[in-house]
Design goal:
The protein has one domain: 2-Layer Sandwich (Alpha-Beta Plaits), CATH 3.30.70. 46% of the residues lie in helices and 14% in strands. The chain has a 4-stranded antiparallel beta sheet, sandwiched between helices. It is globular and about 60 Å long. The structure holds inosine-5'-diphosphate and magnesium ion. The site of inosine-5'-diphosphate (IDP) has 9 residues, from loops.
Amino acid sequence: MICTFLALVSILHQVMAAQRERTFIMVKPDGVQRGIVGEIIKRFEQKGFKLVALKFVWPSEELLQKHYADLAGKPFFPGLIKYMSSGPVVPMVWEGLNSVKTGRVMLGATNPADSAPGTIRGDLCIQVGRNIVHGSDSVESANKEINLWFTEKEVVGWTPANEGWVYED
Ligand code: IDP
Ligand code: MG
């Protein structure tokens, strides 16, 4: 009986740990130019998510075309690539329980006109074509984006000292 219980607890732990997924968050060129990088990092840090990768790069159009491949047919695509390649960006990987879904909630709606106050876009920007930050929309696209922007070595596994105060198990 106790063994069954312990086995169930162990499975539960594994499921919870598996959900400590990774999401790809990127401060766009307007976020960098406007000096909002620290504010965006602060929100993810204060939430309790764990930073596992970060860099400062001026991305090529080729990389951005791969990143936004799903949107290639959209009328705003050329403008999007021009905007995103207009200056340096800050790609990051954040890890935590449901980080993909929660990350999107923290970003707010794509169009800042529809983003709720309290969200990053809702508080800090105005127009959809200058919405300061990107966040993965699914675990699958997060994995694709992480592999596109980072090498395996650039993503650093570590255990924060406060982990037991962020998660109950
Ligand atoms: P998301 O960034 O919230 O995931 P997507 O639909 O994936 O939104 O669009 C990617 C990016 O393309 C948006 O964040 C925004 O910068 C840009 N974008 C989306 N729709 C429009 C539009 O109607 N006009 C201009 N830019 C747009
Ligand atoms: Mg998207």
